[in-house]
Amino acid sequence: xxxxxxxxxxxxxxxxxxxxxxxxxxxxxxxxxxxxxxxxxxxxxxxxxxxxxxxxxxxxxxxxxxxxxxxxxxxxxxxxxxxxxxxxxxxxxxxxxxxxxxxxxxxxxxxxxxxxxxxxxxxxxxxxxxxxxxxxxxxxxxxxxxxxxxxxxxxxxxxxxxxxxxxxxxxxxxxxxxxxxxxxxxxxxxxxxxxxxxxxxxxxxxxxxxxxxxxxxxxxxxxxxxxxxxxxxxxxxxxxxxxxxxxxxxxxxxxxxxxxxxxxxxxxxxxxxxxxxxxxxxxxxxxxxxxxxxxxxxxxxxxxxxxxxxxxxxxxxxxxxxxxxxxxxxxxxxxxxxxxxxxxxxxxxxxxxxxxxxxxxxxxxxxxxxxxxxxxxxxxxxxxxxxxxxxxxxxxxxxxxxxxxxxxxxxxxxxxxxxxxxxxxxxxxxxxxxxxxxxxxxxxxxxxxxxxxxxxxxxxxxxxxxxxxxxxxxxxxxxxxxxxxxxxxxxxxxxxxxxxxxxxxxxxxxxxxxxxxxxxxxxxxxxxxxxxxxxxxxxxxxxxxxxxxxxxxxxxxxxxxxxxxxxxxxxxxxxxxxxxxxxxxxxxxxxxxxxxxxxxxxxxxxxxxxxxxxxxxxxxxxxxxxxxxxxxxxxxxxxxxxxxxxxxxxxxxxxxxxxxx
Amino acid sequence: xxxxxxxxxxxxxxxxxxxxxxxxxxxxxxxxxxxxxxxxxxxxxxxxxxxxxxxxxxxxxxxxxxxxxxxxxxxxxxxxxxxxxxxxxxxxxxxxxxxxxxxxxxxxxxxxxxxxxxxxxxxxxxxxxxxxxxxxxxxxxxxxxxxxxxxxxxxxxxxxxxxxxxxxxxxxxxxxxxxxxxxxxxxxxxxxxxxxxxxxxxxxxxxxxxxxxxxxxxxxxxxxxxxxxxxxxxxxxxxxxxxxxxxxxxxxxxxxxxxxxxxxxxxxxxxxxxxxxxxxxxxxxxxxxxxxxxxxxxxxxxxxxxxxxxxxxxxxxxxxxxxxxxxxxxxxxxxxxxxxxxxxxxxxxxxxxxxxxxxxxxxxxxxxxxxxxxxxxxxxxxxxxxxxxxxxx
Lengths: 661, 393
Prior knowledge:
Order of helices and strands of chain B: HHHEEEEEEHEEEEEEEEHHH
Helix content of chain A: 40-55%
Distance between the termini of chain B: 24 Å
Radius of gyration of chain B: 40 Å
Largest interface: A-B, 74 and 69 residues
Strand content of chain A: 15-25%
Structural class of chain B: alpha+beta
Oligomer: heterodimer
Helix content of chain B: 40-55%
Distance between the termini of chain A: 17 Å
Strand content of chain B: 15-25%
Low-confidence stretches of chain B: none
Structural class of chain A: alpha+beta
Number of helices of chain B: 7
């Protein structure tokens, strides 16, 4: 009865083929499905009287149409695409937050407006409208910095949360992969190909690769090991979960759950995109923004501390609270330098300048080192001033109502030292605003002896290095009281009187009355407070009283030198900003972000095309072609019909035989 | 390439999304009119645009400041002209009364006329523009000239402004000052040897005197020695026997000194000492007015007064013309600078527009093309996904 078994084998084979085709058609749109093909081989044949008669057909196997090399490449490129897309999408939010080029209101404009306001102030130093304009512009700028800084901080936290989310998703997938490995192994050990389970598992691996770059290693019986981010997450049927965390250097890292050996070198997938952005790109952007804000704070403050507004000299000044009063612990550390305080006694109309040399102050506690309290004690010893340090910071105030103080670099109206031996000592008046770049002491030596305005009498002017910078005639041809310029903005006049042959006097000139940076570090007479983009602000003393904006450097407080200096900061190269000006640095920051985005966009476009092509190639091999399946359907339908007809014929012959019998 | 269902779908989807993205980009450019809406659109062009925007704001600020400075200088120029005119009037009055062409105008009227000129000059010197004193140097909130009056008449004018100018940046690296120090404008500063025009025998000493303008040297005799004074007798110095070729006499009110060669003094009296090159407009007129108001002036006195006053006024006029030309030149320079800045402003705007703005005509064509492509993609997708062999089984 081999006829019947042949027919039945044919029917069964056709039926199985139709099942496979049906399965293919049903899964034509299933992501990750690889079409299957049934393989037929002739069934056991028998030999009858030297003739070999076949036993029908049997299905030897069902082949899953897959190109492993292509699948791996697709995994790799898909992972890269996911990483780049994540980076692109997230960076776009930063570009949007920066807001330049999208109309008005960006940081670029705010920076320009501040310096333009200072420029306007140079022509209106004592007018409240213009002083307020500077303060308003500065507050606007500070607000924009804080908004950006806060946004970057929130984005940083958001990235961390998103990374944790992705890791949770990855962990769920990893566990599923391990379970499927177990199911596949069990099934294949029994001799059955677990094609559908393999498809399901491979689809999960693809989903995992979009989260994190993976490597897949084949084992026996359909089991695969999976490595993600260099960590073995699936070994056969065992799953190892991952977690993210912040490393010691502030970077976002990945590790096995419960372990602490983080790695930040992860490639591929959205997680790598987030980690790369947080650890490098955003870290750089945030750092640059902080550097920019800090440079602005320091530069403006360095000019503000030494100047004076239309408010005039001070009766009291308060610094800001400090976390640590040890000067060596400041950022940057303060170890030496000098501060010069001018004290005016309005009762006697005398002005004195007092030097605070940090190098000569003996700390109260040598083990701790120089502290703000030590400096406060030194200042407190100056006649006319009270000074102390407490939890709210350094405080300087007048010790009596007739005293005022400031840090103006203005030359004192009389020489700082003199050795004059004439019978009638002439009155020497010093005036002007020193325009040199370094502090200096000018020495004046009299040549000749005699009465001012007579005979041969000259003054030889030397700088601190001993170089002769000018020789001034104060003998015949010079009218006593006339002004003489020694250069660098300083003038002197010599009154009626006479000089001895070796008479001399000195004039101290200051480019900076705080070579230590102490005043700005303590917040004394500062314009901005803060240490970066997150906390930059205009000091309340300035917002409450805009007349304190330090426009002047001269003793009478009417000049605009300081306002001019501050307005010119706009174009000043700053060493902490890679020798770029504030505006240039910011513009570079913005366009750097744009450049990063542009590069990522190009890479994304390229990768999309590559992935598209690879997907098409894969679909050629593994995809379901409706037309092809329909044609196969026809073939096996006819095969089924033929086998049915054959069986019917065999049955009919049997019946005929039975009838004969 | 095979025609699997998923590859068909993927290709259609890919093509559609490409077209849609491009259409979105073009639409944005049409809406904003700009081809660069964010730095990533074209980073290097964006950098240029940001720079140019900054430059625009800078130039606008410079133009504002320049305009303010120019306005103040224009005003200053008018004030200087006013002072020149007042001086000219004073000179005419003096000329009329001393040259006999006044038609009998009395001295009192002339004195009043000169006093009025002085008041006018002080008012001009204390001019304000937009609430700021324009001849006070950097101290624009305080009137530069303080006057002392006796019976309503100015007896002294003191400069209390600042000697510092107020520089304003009006172009990159170019500073201009609008607020001059009046002390620099309204007096001459080319000191010459004092000129003694009396008969007492005094002459200029060898030392360099510090007195300015006109000084009255009084020579008296105390019975033993001659004594000289320049402060109206408040203080004096004794002339030694035989005199002193370089005797210093001090004005106790000002501290200024006059070196006198007293060797030739042979009589008492009052000498008018002029110091050419040191006059200021105020004290010159005060001296002139007070001298004219002196009773009992002889014809010779009037002649001397006329000669000395004319010399002083001419000197001051020369100074004012010089300063007027200086201010005028500065105004001219600023006008030219303004023109350059406006040209720069225009060039910057133009360059920015060229870099930033989209070509609307080209955009319209591109958008139309993309929309057609998009529609064709949709149509092809519909056809491809609609028909298969299954339809014919």
